[in-house]
Write a structure and sequence with these properties.
heterodimer, A: mainly alpha, Hypothetical protein af1432, 2 domains, 0% strand, globular, B: alpha/beta, Alpha-Beta Plaits, TIM Barrel, 8-stranded mixed beta barrel, 5-stranded mixed sheet, 20% strand, elongated
């Protein structure tokens, strides 16, 4: 995904326009117009896949990323997808639209080595989340919902990095915090936090409400298991799956950059109905997914 | 134990005679107390009537009736007392339905009525008639009882299993009971969990679905209405939310209550904050520094997360906070908690303006003015519509204007439609005007055109 996304050799018109927009520093990037075009097509009784494939195909790097997404292991399609039309057919417009949102999200922020690593990590968590949704939630959560959440969960971070020069230090401190919640550390030093910013960004891109609420609450340990109505269970599954995915990736690599699992892990496992003893078994099965595309 | 003897001797005889032959009647599937069909026969009858309804295409309705508080009668007067009530109620059912329904006793204090050739409107009418009859006070010895019932109504659906059909009426009855009894609930009207898990009635569910569709398909928009000073300056534009596709907008009166019930009101409010803030930024980029006034709900302001959400919106829009004004709903003043006050202070500290909306009616009162660091007072349209003729209203407007001034606020009059009102408001000392006299709320593009036209003239 990285090479396709970051390649300046083939700047398709729409990406150019998007980058230009984000350079103007208008805060968070507005919803990409291509998503509106897909939405318009989806609302028709007989959506024209060919037309959409042409629109998406005009953007080479977007096409490449979409095909790559459709071939992700968690979608489990037997034959490999080779064209945008095929990707649209196998994913369906709904899923394709969110996959495209995720791809563009990464492109609209100015590139830097630091952010590349951040997006790579998000992509890995998203992929594993999609796979885990099939393995452990017993169809309570659609894999593509888990996948989209993984991509957008931390999208508030690049926004804050751009706006607050000292935010990197805040992040370091929040990552090292063992007791208070991640967002409590942010709230103490800046007037908002990445969960809230991410939630607003996702909402302004018209992502499903359950996804927005999950982004908003993904560091709230007490919402995971509180039998309350808000956020709804499907939001809580999204949070638990992504946190579990992050943990498995860290466990596999032996590198742990965060202290979130001790704070959120027990609640996530209980919500997912997994015991601590079963975690290694899940990890063993997940290794091919974790190592894929790296 | 002594039981008061029923006043109605006829009923007394009826109870007696029915008891005497109870064995025979029971054998025929008849409830010995009421003479109605018993539970087993009811199921058989429903099956027959459902088959008939399917054949003839005529609607079949079922009413499931459960008497409220019969347990208390039994506890006070024993089962014979309860039976006497049952007999009298059965008599009323028979009389009131006048052959419109076949009646069955399901046991205890539950009855089922089956009405053939009876559509939804007639079934509900029958249920209400029956409820009214049941609720007529009933003399029991020297006591007057006030019976009541919960009634569920269902209409047979095509190819529906007769038992499922009865069960639906039973479920609707349970809902009526949960809602406090003494009411009729139609099957399909029972609350069901909405997408966010909150129990909603069918109509509300439909609106919740449309709200979610709007949230996911870009179906939310803001329209803007200018607020114009007497000096001709544009004081601000108020952002008003529109929800749904342009050809099928959901009226605010319908979507706001559902949004409040489901908690979506907070999210709609946050969406407005960001969209309104972005528009303020767009206006500034277009060389037009105009304040955008955004409505915030009570639910948003009582939340400890409000300040983070406000800052997130300002930051995401990358807008100067001074270009944003929050319009505070008057229901906020029911209870100004410490959280609300600290949220409002934080907003002011950030540089955001605060306008008190619909001031002067409802819950807003003078005492609140000292607790809220407001920068603007918007006088309720109720004062404006009676101007200039109502001199007392004029006196109140003038006094409120002076008070607001003393507190350093800008005074706006809402709902101004006539030129004569303008003169009165100017005389009272009001600073700015909002209303159809200047402009209706309009989409972004129309507002931009309006700006251009205004400049040209």
């Amino acid at each position: 995904m990285t090479s396709a996304a970051g390649s300046p050799a083939n700047p398709a018109p729409s990406v150019d326009a998007l980058l230009e927009t984000s350079m103007r520093d208008i805060g968070i990037p507005p919803r990409p117009t291509i998503l509106d075009r897909i939405a318009t097509e989806m609302q028709k009784d007989d959506p024209d896949f060919k037309r959409l494939a042409t629109i998406i195909g005009a953007d080479v790097s977007l096409s490449a990323s979409l095909i790559k997404t459709a071939n992700s292991p968690f979608f489990g399609f037997r034959s490999r997808v080779r064209s945008v039309s095929e990707a649209l057919m196998v994913l369906g417009l709904d899923v394709a639209s969110r996959a495209i949102a995720g791809i563009i999200l990464r492109k609209v922020f100015p590139n830097s080595l630091h952010l590349e690593r951040f997006w790579d990590a998000s992509a890995r968590i998203a992929r594993l989340s999609g796979w885990l949704a099939q393995k452990v939630t017993d169809h309570k959560l659609r894999p593509d919902d888990a996948y989209t959440f993984g991509l957008f969960r931390d999208c508030g971070i690049p926004v804050l990095l751009k706006r607050f020069p000292g935010y990197e230090k805040v992040l370091d401190q929040a990552n090292r915090e063992t007791d208070r919640s991640f967002t409590a550390i942010e709230d103490a030093q800046i007037p908002t936090n990445h969960a809230m910013v991410g939630c607003l960004l996702a909402q302004s891109w018209w992502l499903p409400e359950e996804t927005c609420l999950a982004i908003r609450h993904h560091h709230d340990a007490n919402v995971l298991e509180t039998p309350s109505i808000s956020p709804p269970l499907t939001s809580r599954y999204r949070i638990a799956i992504a946190q579990f995915a992050e943990h498995l990736i860290q466990r596999h690599s032996g590198l742990s950059h965060t202290n979130e699992w001790p704070k959120l892990g027990p609640g996530c496992l209980r919500l997912l109905g997994i015991t601590e003893e079963e975690v290694d078994g899940v990890l063993a099965d997940a290794i091919p997914v974790i190592e894929a595309e790296d | 134990m002594h039981y008061p003897s029923p006043v109605n001797s006829k009923l007394s005889i009826s109870v007696h005679s029915q008891r005497k032959s109870s064995k025979d009647m029971h054998a025929k599937g008849i409830d010995p107390t009421t003479g109605f069909l018993d539970r087993g026969e009811c199921l058989a009858l429903t099956t027959r009537m459902a088959a008939q309804a399917t054949q003839t295409g005529r609607p079949l309705a079922s009413l499931w009736i459960d008497l409220d508080r019969l347990k208390q009668v039994n506890e006070s007067f024993g089962h014979l007392g309860g039976d006497t009530v049952i007999v009298q109620i059965a008599e009323r059912l028979r009389e009131k339905s006048g052959g419109r329904a076949e009646w069955c006793r399901m046991g205890g204090d539950e009855f089922v009525g089956l009405a053939t050739d009876c559509d939804a409107a007639h079934a509900l009418q029958l249920a209400h008639d029956v409820l009214q009859a049941i609720e007529t006070p009933l003399r029991f010895g020297e006591f007057a009882l006030h019976p009541s019932a919960s009634i569920g109504v269902a209409l047979l659906e095509p190819n529906e299993d007769p038992f499922a059909f009865l069960e639906r009426a039973d479920r609707a009855m349970s809902t009526a009971k949960r809602q406090g009894g003494g009411r009729v609930v139609a099957s399909g009207d029972e609350p069901v969990p909405g997408r966010l898990g909150i129990l909603l009635a069918r109509e509300e569910l439909e609106i919740e679905n449309r709200l979610h569709l709007a949230l996911e398909n870009g179906g939310l928009t803001l329209h803007y209405q200018p607020i114009i000073g007497f000096d001709g300056r544009i004081e601000a534009v108020e952002a008003l939310m529109r929800c749904g596709a342009s050809n099928e907008l959901i009226p605010p009166g319908k979507f706001i209550p559902v949004a409040e019930k489901t908690g979506l009101v907070i999210r709609l409010g946050e969406w407005s904050l960001l969209a309104g803030a972005r528009f303020a930024r767009d206006l500034e980029d277009a060389g037009r520094r105009t304040k955008v006034a955004i409505n915030v709900s009570r639910a948003q302001l009582v939340s400890p997360k409000f300040t983070q959400a406000l800052h997130a919106a300002l930051l995401c829009a990358n807008v100067n906070a001074e270009l944003i004004e929050l319009e505070l709903t008057e229901s906020l003043f029911m209870d100004i908690s410490e959280t609300v006050q600290s949220n409002l202070r934080a907003a002011r500290d950030a540089g955001v303006g605060l306008a008190i909306d619909d001031f002067g009616t409802g819950y807003s009162c003078l005492a609140n003015l000292k607790d809220i660091p407001a920068t603007k007072l918007k006088l309720d349209r109720a004062f404006v519509t009676v101007l200039p003729h109502d001199r007392r209203a004029f006196a109140v407007v003038k006094a409120m204007t002076q008070l607001g001034r003393e507190l350093g606020m800008t005074i706006v009059a809402e709902g101004v439609e006539k030129i004569e009102q303008l003169d009165s408001l100017r005389e009272a000392g009001v600073d700015a005007i909002q209303g159809y006299i200047h402009a209706r709320p309009m989409p972004e593009e129309a507002l931009m055109n309006w700006f251009h036209e205004r400049k040209a003239t």
